[in-house]
Write a structure and sequence with these properties.
CATH architecture of the largest domain: 3-Layer(aba) Sandwich
Largest sheet: 8 strands, mixed
Number of domains: 2
Number of helices: 13
CATH class of the largest domain: Alpha Beta
Distance between the termini: 46 Å
Structural class: alpha/beta
């Protein structure tokens, strides 16, 4: 029994031919994958963005209501670690720079072994004191909260000096290592390979070979790192989308390398394959680029997911059941006949892959401090914070690290100790006032019928449906042992 996870970052399903035949993206291997797996139409995010999503991948439970971006907690169940403790060898290959920042520092060490590839985005990699030469650009990216220049901007331009040919690109090097692992271990039993690339996350820096798939006549300034509101003209927007598509094509080519090995060595008979992403990416829809600064529309929230399960051997099938990333860990543990911890909220998808059996009626998702969202697969309800209570936000944690810095002494001066949550293994946790980095109250609460309005362009005014979704949201938050102030922030 073997498992391969191929994990992308910021992969928008609407730019993949199996999900959108009119997208124009050159991605034959995603089509090939869809023909050899179960393709999920209603896969939704949970806790956003990158590292909170990876905490869900490990723990099988929603975490965005209790703390912001941060490390695995001492009480967290980690799927790769549970596999390791039960005799399954686990290996992580990643160029995802956030793993080697403060807020991601406890994830890679849960595996039996790991390999890291440097140089993505603004990874603080090469040491150059002199400022790099930067060409004229359409837009300088801001921080994720929309304020100030991105901390990664300078470092990215340093890194690009060392990433020129396709073999130099971090994505290529990740898949080189992944293929090496598969070649070396294909005849061994009981292992999991987590092969992860930061692509197609911004910036959309890609070898020219892939840009050639999308010819254009653009004469403007450099633009491959979008952020914030779409203030650009149509030619600039089209140019940036072209770069994203080119990067997806590169992702597709490397996916094909894994599929080729599975074909060559007949690994389909005993190897589970999961291909997915942490979230999507807005490419100008709703007047925004990226994520976090706006509601989590379906371009971000409704994600691509493909699973091949050698037990069921279901290929070329479409599944409509409502699934989330919290289901990945239980599915993998179940595959290896390892008991699923009681604190995992996700469900094994074995029967869903076979018969489209439902594992939930509603999916809760969101970002710490943002909207709390819920969907039943047809309706999406986004609950905005009360403007007067939006800042009533607390971290519950024993891991005192933010995304890329430690908690400050000032933050800890007024911390208190709280009684255990249902999932903290009888550990009391620190309650620390959090800074609200994202203002969602101006957007208000929103209800969409995505069956009739897949672009979520026209909010629905339906009191009966809204009440049902609010009731379901309250129930799901209670199942998550949500802090009381979260209900109060939402006016619930």
């Amino acid at each position: 029994m073997k498992t391969i996870i191929v994990f992308y970052d910021s992969l928008n399903k609407r730019y993949l031919p199996p999900y959108n035949s009119c997208c124009g993206t050159v991605a034959p291997n995603f089509t090939r994958l869809a023909e050899h797996s179960a393709m999920f139409q209603n896969s939704y995010v949970g806790s956003m963005p990158c590292i909170p999503a990876r905490r869900e991948l490990h723990t099988g439970r929603c975490n965005f209501l209790h703390r912001e971006w941060g490390p695995l907690e001492v009480f967290d169940d980690s799927m790769p670690e549970l596999l390791k403790k039960n005799g399954v060898y686990t290996h992580l290959i990643s160029d995802h720079l956030h793993y080697w920042e403060d807020g991601g520092s406890t994830y890679h060490t849960r595996y039996s072994s790991w390999e890291i590839v440097r140089g993505q985005e603004g990874d603080h990699w090469k040491g150059e004191v002199e400022a790099p030469a930067i060409p004229p650009v359409v837009k300088i990216p801001t921080m994720q909260n929309g304020t100030g220049v991105s901390k990664h901007w300078r470092y990215d331009w340093v890194n690009r000096q060392y990433i020129k040919e396709e073999k130099d690109f971090p994505q290529t090097r990740c898949f080189d290592l992944g293929c090496e692992f598969i070649e070396k271990n294909r005849d061994q039993d009981n292992w999991l390979l987590h092969l992860e690339t930061f692509d197609p996350h911004e910036p959309f820096y890609v070898p020219d070979e892939y840009l050639d798939f999308y010819p254009e006549d653009y004469q403007g300034s450099h633009f491959d790192w979008p952020s914030g509101k779409t203030t650009e003209d149509e030619s600039q927007i089209a140019h940036c989308r072209r770069a994203y598509q080119a990067l997806v094509t590169m992702c597709d080519r490397n996916l094909g390398r894994v599929l080729d090995l599975m074909d060559r060595y007949d690994m389909w008979k005993d190897t589970m394959l999961i291909v997915g992403t942490d979230h999507g990416f807005l490419l100008g829809e709703h007047g925004y680029w990226g994520k976090n600064q706006m509601p989590y529309y379906n371009e971000n929230a409704n994600t691509p997911l493909f699973i091949w399960d050698p037990r069921s051997r279901m290929k070329g099938v479409v599944r409509n059941a409502l699934v989330q990333m919290i289901d990945w860990a239980p599915t993998i543990l179940d595959y290896y006949h390892i008991p699923i911890p009681a604190d995992m909220q996700g469900k094994s998808l074995e029967q869903t892959i076979k018969t489209d059996e439902a594992v939930r009626e509603y999916a809760l998702f969101g970002m710490f401090g943002g909207h709390v969202n819920i969907t039943d697969g047809r309706y999406v309800y986004m609950r905005a914070p009360d403007p007067d209570k939006e800042d009533e936000l607390y971290n519950y944690t024993l891991a005192l690290q933010h995304m890329n810095e430690r908690f400050s002494v000032e933050e800890l001066e007024n911390m208190t100790l709280r009684e255990p949550f249902s999932f903290t293994k009888n550990c009391r946790v620190l309650r620390i006032k959090a800074e609200n980095k994202f203002r969602m109250s101006p957007f208000g609460s929103l209800l969409f019928d995505v069956e009739k309005d897949p672009g979520q362009l026209s909010p629905v005014e339906d009191e009966k449906i809204a009440k049902r979704m609010i009731r379901a949201m309250r129930e799901e938050m209670n199942k998550n042992d949500c802090p009381q102030e979260q209900f109060e922030r939402l006016g619930m």
